[in-house]
From TrEMBL:
Annotated segments matching region Disordered: 477-496
PROSITE patterns: HAMP, HIS_KIN
Domain called HAMP: residue spans: 194-246
Start and end residues of each Histidine kinase domain: 261-477
Protein name in UniProt: histidine kinase
Catalytic activities: ATP + protein L-histidine = ADP + protein N-phospho-L-histidine
Compartments, record wording: Cell membrane
Lineage: Bacteria, Bacillati, Actinomycetota, Actinomycetes, Kitasatosporales
Source organism of this protein record: Streptomyces longisporus
Pfam families to which the protein is assigned, alphabetical: HAMP, HATPase_c, HisKA
EC number: 2.7.13.3
Domain of life (superkingdom): Bacteria
């Protein structure tokens, strides 16, 4: 159906309709003129011949004629036609006779008879007689040596079968000429459509190329018509878009580099600050209450700042395309248990995990640890207990095997307006909450770590209340490992 509405089809149909209308109009006009000329010529010939024969034979008529004389005159008039198609009737007052005995001259109308009675000129009329057209001619004649109207009238009927054959042949010729005209119109339409659509197809291909990221795509500009103007405008637009994107990419690259450089430069002073705060924490019990409170605040903020710097460095590796997978075949259930135990969450989180060595897969252990830690930490901070971590296997075929990790909490859930944004960087659902424990990058880092594994992560609300985060990781990931081969330019340390 879309092809039937395409520009090519519409052009061909338009050309065909114009050609058909032109051929029909031309044919109709040509037919009318030819038919009129043919019938006029035939009519003039018959009338001239009738007059000539009447002038030649009228002097031989004995006045006043009787019926036998009228029959002889009618037969003599009909015999002058070489084709033998004339039918003649001669009348004198109340007497009449025809060239063929029993001919009732049904084609002769009262109107034409009356016209002959009232007009000295020759009158004629075309009438339909059965399956053909007949020419009926009437005229008054003069006796030899007579003056004025003698009362003798001659009527002639000529079947125009030959003329009708000429007209039928003309119609056939016009019909035969119409078909080639339509075929030629369609061919011309196809050629015109090809010429018109060639730059349109080129424009479509160039637009797709631009959409795929090849911003250096340009069109060849030929001619000076509207399509050439369109191609020229496209090239100008593409050039402006390429320049804008290049500028934006440069700004983005500089911003990423700045964040990475700042994060890297902050690590050294933060390490020193962390060492100092560790010492101050040990001596906080011997300090006065106000100083001890200030020391603990500095220590907490230093830890948060260190976590933020680590998260910024981690996200900058993803932006730079330097995040590498170091795959290893591990026991996934045991890996999840170690993640919970390392953070002291074993007693805070319920688990539904398969037995040891029941589910193994090739993943990056460090990145899997970051994914699970971020999701569980998010559930404990923003949800409510009980929090459940569930691990299962999905996929019937070996090539489709994947590990499904679910983290469920019993909190209020995630507002519908927030769900589409939970994995965005620095996004916080509560605009009034200016300070939180997290950096706002945890879920974004989780999504990136899942993505480099070739998996997926999604967030939803449970019907019974609470949120659920679902991670699916393919268990066979050699292609991802090869595609991400290489060292980690920024080290391998990360915090959830």
């Amino acid at each position: 159906m879309p092809q039937l509405r395409g520009l090519r089809t519409r052009l061909v149909v338009a050309f065909a309709l114009v050609a058909a209308l032109t051929a029909a109009t031309t044919g109709a006009l040509s037919f009318r003129e030819a038919r009129t000329g043919l019938l006029q010529q035939s009519q003039d010939t018959v009338i001239a011949q009738l007059r000539a024969q009447a002038n030649r034979l009228a002097p031989e008529v004995v006045a006043p004629p009787d019926e036998a004389e009228l029959r002889r005159f009618a037969a003599a008039m009909a015999a002058t036609d070489p084709s033998g198609t004339w039918r003649v009737m001669a009348t004198y007052r109340n007497l009449s006779a025809t060239s063929f005995t029993g001919d009732r001259f049904e084609e002769l109308t009262p109107a034409l008879r009356k016209a002959v009675d009232t007009r000295p000129a020759t009158v004629f009329q075309r009438v339909n007689s059965g399956d053909h057209t007949a020419l009926v001619v009437g005229m008054s004649v003069t006796f030899a040596g007579g003056v004025g109207d003698s009362g003798l009238q001659v009527f002639l009927i000529v079947a125009q079968t030959k003329e009708q054959a000429y007209v039928d042949a003309l119609v056939t010729a016009i019909e035969r000429a119409t078909v080639p005209a339509l075929v030629l119109a369609v061919l011309l339409a196809l050629l015109a459509a090809r010429g018109v659509l060639r730059p349109v197809r080129a424009l479509r291909g160039a637009t797709r190329s631009i959409a795929e990221g090849r911003l250096d795509t340009r069109l060849a500009v030929d001619g000076s018509d509207e399509l050439a103007d369109l191609s020229h405008t496209f090239n100008e637009t593409a050039a402006a878009l390429e320049a804008s994107v290049a500028e934006l990419r440069g700004m983005e690259a500089r911003a990423r580099r700045f964040a990475a450089d700042v994060s890297h430069e902050l690590r050294t002073p933060l390490a020193a600050m962390s060492a100092v705060t560790d010492v101050l924490d040990e001596d906080a019990a011997r300090l006065d209450p106000d100083t001890a409170t200030a020391v603990r605040l500095i220590s907490e903020e230093t830890v948060k700042l260190a976590r933020l710097v680590d998260d910024l460095m981690e996200i900058s590796r993803f932006d730079a395309g330097a995040a590498a997978l170091h795959l290893d075949e591990i026991d996934l259930a045991e890996s999840l248990r170690r993640t919970l135990a390392a953070r002291g969450w074993t007693d805070l989180v319920d688990t539904e995990l398969p037995p040891s060595d029941a589910l193994r897969g090739r993943v990056d252990p460090r990145r899997l640890d970051v994914v699970v830690a971020n999701l569980v930490g998010n559930a404990l901070r923003h949800g409510a207990r009980p929090v459940l971590v569930r691990l299962a296997e999905a996929g019937r075929h070996a090539a489709e095997r994947r590990a499904v990790i679910e983290v469920l909490d019993s909190g209020p859930g995630i507002p519908d307006t927030v769900l589409p944004h939970v994995f965005e960087r620095f996004y916080k659902s509560d605009a009034a909450r200016t300070r939180t424990e997290g950096s706002g990058l945890g879920l974004a880092i989780t999504a990136e770590n899942v993505r480099v594994h070739g998996g997926s992560v999604r967030a939803a609300n449970r019907p019974e209340g609470g949120a659920v985060f679902t991670v699916e990781l393919p268990l066979h990931n050699e292609q991802s490992a090869q595609g991400k081969a290489g060292g980690d330019a920024w080290g391998r340390g990360s915090r959830p």
